[in-house]
Write a structure and sequence with these properties.
heterodimer; A: mainly alpha; MetI-like fold; globular; disordered C terminus; B: mainly alpha; 2 domains; about 75% helix; flat
Chain lengths: ~280, ~290
């Protein structure tokens, strides 16, 4: 009896959680495949003839003439990928050192990383705006990548340290006995074991630059504008352009959802249990 | 315990330096620039001459009505978002730590909100909460009958609506962190407690909560400092209005800098935000360390 009650409880709570997350997104998706007439209908229509016109329009007949969706999409992809590579490269090295090699003063360095993590991006946006305007980085792709990497490193290092710490202690010693140099041990033995951690961290780094509005809104105009900037400029008050907005959103959300599902197996569960049998 | 720096340490530093030097260049230069600027009267429109005015910008922070109102709004926003996110996050993590069919699916779906752009999330809820065509009021009126429609962005409700969306967006982050913490507790520890006949309360009190202390602390610090700088959600949903009812600190800073072009004053606001952020972090850390003694 208790078992049945337990199952019912688990099922009901699961259903509630899933609905809270997915129903709003589903509503957004439905909007993106509705005609303007169907969107405006009252009571809201749950059954209607789906249309692809919103998706067609954002590519070929955009409502925002200043920012074209394809251009902004290209910016977002380039900026996000370059940021990902640089920030993960730098922070993997730093996290390996702090989390595992633990040199003298690693605690202080760790506090410093956490301290840098605490710096609000919105607090450096004003000086960046002035400096970028002076040196010509305003409204450029690098004008966004440079601060994104800096903001990314503390978070990524902080997350990765834990993964490096969790790798069993005596692996490097074993590698040294087998004749590996320090860096070889890092590259050949430790890095693959940290791969799940790096994958998990990369989701956060990806989402940070893909989703960010605080930096690109003041630091770009049109040339280097990213997807959130475009979305933020759609006027929604009158119910106008909801369909196009839905289409933007769905296209922007899809890579994130795929990324999440793809990497979730790394997020979930232990990372290195059983790597060394004591 | 003091140690001298060995060759091994020097080797370890080599791995840290690239990241450290990069961050110092990219973060410290703007920070210093903005600290210096905060002592100047410097506007980009009107009278654009730079004048050294000492601490006047900081004095204005404590007397300006709009800024003071922004502190009040920010505090309300912080209090409710952090409280609700921690409670729901902990409960969801505890639920997801149970073994049941479909557990993994729920975990993956729960991750979705935190991966979404706050911009999109804000727009999504703005449309759902729309007064004339929004589905939220349709559902409420279908259940409670006509006349119960809610004006989600009225002066009274706007902040609550923004808080609701922030909780929807950020609770998964807390849940994920706490869940990772729960999974980090060795099962042997729990099994040993079971063998010793500990009940659910005792297990929570003596094993789970102490083991999670670090994780809970980090989650609270992160949520507090991140909600303190919250900008995209209120910017998209209400732009600080109506009548500054949702004018959180991030919005105030952004408007001072990029609507009114008060560069000097917004630099002072930036530094205040940094100082408060560090204040919170130090406070939480102190509290936890004291608890450990």
């Amino acid at each position: 009896m208790r078992k049945i009650l337990n199952s019912v409880f688990n099922f009901v709570v699961s259903l509630i959680l899933i609905s809270i997350v997915l129903l709003p997104l589903l509503w957004m998706f439905l909007m993106s495949i509705k005609t303007e007439g169907d969107i405006m209908a009252w009571p809201p229509k749950f059954f209607f003839k789906p249309t692809a016109e919103n998706y067609y329009n954002i590519f070929f007949n955009p409502a925002n003439s200043r920012l074209s969706f394809t251009h902004v999409l290209k910016n977002s992809v380039i900026i996000t990928l370059i940021t990902l590579v640089f920030s993960l490269g730098l922070s993997t090295l730093a996290a390996y050192s702090i989390g595992r090699l633990k040199p003298v003063g690693y605690r202080g360095l760790n506090y410093m990383i956490l301290g840098l993590r605490m710096i609000p991006p919105i607090a450096i946006v004003v000086p960046l705006f002035i400096i970028w305007n002076t040196i010509g980085l305003y409204d450029t792709i690098w004008g966004l990548i440079i601060p994104y990497v800096a903001i990314n490193i503390p978070l990524a290092t902080w997350l990765l340290e834990g993964f490096f710490e969790a790798i069993p202690r005596n692996l490097e010693d074993a590698a040294a006995i087998d004749g590996c140099t320090g860096f070889q041990a890092f590259r050949i033995i430790i890095l693959p074991l940290a791969a799940p951690g790096i994958a998990a961290t990369s989701i956060f780094s990806f989402s940070l630059s893909w989703n960010n509005l605080t930096l690109p809104l003041p630091l770009t105009m049109s040339k280097a504008a990213t997807l959130p900037v475009l979305a933020s400029q759609v006027r929604t008050d009158e119910g106008l352009l909801w369909g196009q907005l839905g289409a933007y959103s769905i296209l922007m959300i899809i890579p994130m959802i795929i990324f999440t599902i793809f990497s979730s197996k790394y997020l979930i569960g232990g990372i290195s249990s059983g790597a060394v049998k004591e | 315990m003091k140690r001298i720096i060995t060759a091994k340490d020097k080797y370890a530093y080599k791995y840290i330096f690239p990241a450290l030097i990069y961050m110092c260049l990219v973060l410290f230069i703007p920070l210093v620039f903005s600290l210096v600027t905060s002592f100047f009267k410097w506007d980009l429109i009107g009278d654009i001459t730079r004048k050294f005015i000492g601490l006047k910008n900081y004095r204005k922070l404590l007397t300006d009505d709009e800024t003071l109102n922004s502190f009040k709004v920010t505090f309300q926003f912080l209090f409710w978002t952090v409280l609700l996110e921690m409670i729901f996050g902990y409960l969801i993590a505890a639920f997801l730590n149970r073994k049941f069919f479909g557990n993994k699916v729920v975990r993956v779906i729960i991750l979705i909100p935190m991966m979404l752009s706050p911009t999109i999330v804000a727009l999504m809820w703005k449309i759902i909460f729309n007064g004339d065509h929004g589905i939220a009021n349709y559902i409420i009126e279908s259940i409670l009958g006509p006349g119960h429609a809610v004006i989600w962005f009225s002066k009274e409700n706007a902040l609550r609506s923004v808080i609701f969306v922030d909780v929807w967006l950020n609770t998964p982050f807390v849940a994920l962190m706490v869940l990772a913490g729960l999974q980090g507790i060795p099962t042997e520890l729990i099994e040993a407690a079971d063998v010793d006949g500990a009940n659910l309360f005792q297990k929570n009190r003596y094993i789970i909560i102490p083991s999670l202390k670090q994780v809970l602390l980090v989650a609270v610090i992160f949520r507090t400092t991140f909600n303190l700088r919250q900008f995209p959600l209120p910017w998209i949903m209400t732009a600080g209005g109506p009548a500054n009812a949702t004018n959180v600190f991030g919005i105030e800073l952004y408007r001072q800098a990029f609507s009114f072009y008060h560069i000097g004053y917004s630099s002072a606001l930036s530094w205040l935000l940094i100082i408060i952020t560090f204040g919170f972090s130090v406070l939480y850390t102190r509290i936890t360390l004291r608890g450990e003694k």
